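Input for the complex:
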Amino acid sequence: MHPLIPGLLFVCSILLILFRPKQKVSCAPGPPSIPIIGNIFRVNLTEGAWKVFTRMKAQYGDIIFFHGLGTNILVLNSLKAVNDLLEKNGTIYSHRPVFTVAGELMGLDQSLALIPYGKEWREHRKLANIALSSVSVQKYRTVQEDLSALLIRDILINPGDFFKHVRLSAARVVMSVTYGFSVDTDDKYITHAEKTMEIVTTATVPGAFLCDFLPFMKHLPKWVPFMKEAAHGKFMIDTLVDRPFEQVKSELVSGTAVDSLARDLFSLGGSNVEFDHRIKWILGTMYGAGGEATYATVLTFIMAMALHTEKQKKAQEEIDLVVGTERVPTIADLPNLPYVKAVIKETMRWNPAFPLGVARRSSEGYVYEGHFIPKGTIVMPNIWAIASEPNSKYDPREFIPERFMDSLVSTIDPAAYAFGFGRRYCPGRFLADNSVSIMISTILAAFDIFPPANQNLKPNFSLNMISYPKPFDCRIVPRSENASRLIIQRAAHCQENSKI
Ligand code: HEM
Ligand SMILES: *[C@@H]1O[C@H](CO)[C@@H](O)[C@H](O)[C@H]1NC(C)=O
Ligand SMILES: *[C@@H]1O[C@H](CO)[C@@H](O)[C@H](O)[C@H]1NC(C)=O
Ligand SMILES: *[C@@H]1O[C@H](CO)[C@@H](O)[C@H](O)[C@H]1NC(C)=O
Ligand SMILES: *[C@@H]1O[C@H](CO)[C@@H](O)[C@H](O)[C@H]1NC(C)=O
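Predicted:
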């Protein structure tokens, strides 16, 4: 713990006593609390809050209530609770938490992912849904397939760096699809985007800044450390959003722009300042939101394969049978690859990219199953708990793709939870599905993945909002000379095409 934290908590408790009456609401069950601090700090975060909340389910049930420092948090531990509140009562539960620092000071409240539920959100969302519909994203299949071939080539050349290659590849897909930029021009954007997303994901953890609890702190002078941090964040985010937008705009004017979400969105409206601003932020949001969850999923897959070589073999046999060894798999092959699809589903179930979803906030008080949920409560869908729901046949913590092919004992499809819920359900899901599927099936076709030669591979995932494996070792070996040759040919062919 930082040495300043106890002091800050003390100051902040005094301020709360002076300025804010203690809220007398703790109607839904939750761990015992102490005055002012409440029970929020009872959660041991060293292993991931989602696992703690999932264990607490046995004691407290489907909804668990935390409070303290003037903040209320409700954790939803079952698909039923999530559907009842986030879907059926979407009018109340579609807001996001208010982040004074990330939202107001850094400017992220202009982003589709954080805009308060209301008219402006609806306008953004309408445009995003058009640009990312299941039909619209079909035209990016070739780009996605080309970039998968490039990924395989990069891993072939330097398998030890697979982690970096997967990250870069996922970022390139979003970059190409969002703005239509080629691989050669985008690396400066990608490096910048990665740095910015690190700032964004830490700043949007509820309670990341004391100022989020005590908004009046935003009036503190510029030299205060967190104000400096906020100013730096704003600069990084503005650059992330502005720079590619200016470039694509000039390409559109000069007629050199290729197919992209940017081109689609520009074609939808007039050119006025308000519309420009909206499009700029929608594109920036897609770009920011799209890469990390995609590579988190692919890296989780690689780890699962290293741990379960027998499942890997089964998936590869299916690909050899259906696709053959004379060509590379395409997105169009996926419907004919049921086992590979089950592996992808199992990856998203085994370690969902957003184990606690993306938090919501309630806009009204509401009584659910006899428990009062106050206005302004931060609501977290515990996707991990839903994904780990035990059933009579399969251990929820084991990696068993077969569970999705069992006609007797059914398992909830991750499509029902991995991409969120209700009105703020992930608009990028079709694009993401294609990216993840083609990357995974191309990797399966090209490589055998083994655990490291002389050490145990233990799953170890980051505890951030987006959870992915911490850097790990594994051996990635080409399956055959033919498979490698095919990939190199394909990669060379798509670079020649210089479309990407
Ligand atoms: C495997 C990849 C992905 C996963 C697992 C994923 C998952 C999610 C989840 C759980 C949410 C929160 C939804 C909620 O509040 O209930 C979300 C929101 C969002 N996602 Fe994704 N996502 C992925 C890829 C993408 C891609 C590729 C894009 C864009 C091109 C994208 C754009 C967005 C946006 C803009 C939001 C905010 C929507 C809103 O607040 O209205 N995502 N995503
Ligand atoms: C939190 O959990 C970890 C792992 O389960 C344990 O090692 C640690 O002692 C716990 N910390 C506290 C304060 O209980
Ligand atoms: C919440 O959902 C229930 C069940 O669908 C419905 O009866 C109720 O009217 C909803 N309340 C609000 C405020 O949306
Ligand atoms: C997981 O990673 C953290 C830090 O990166 C490390 O301290 C911890 O020991 C690792 N856990 C396991 C089980 O390897
Ligand atoms: C490799 O490719 C060549 C030419 O396409 C083919 O004749 C040969 O049978 C392939 N080898 C294997 C092991 O698939």
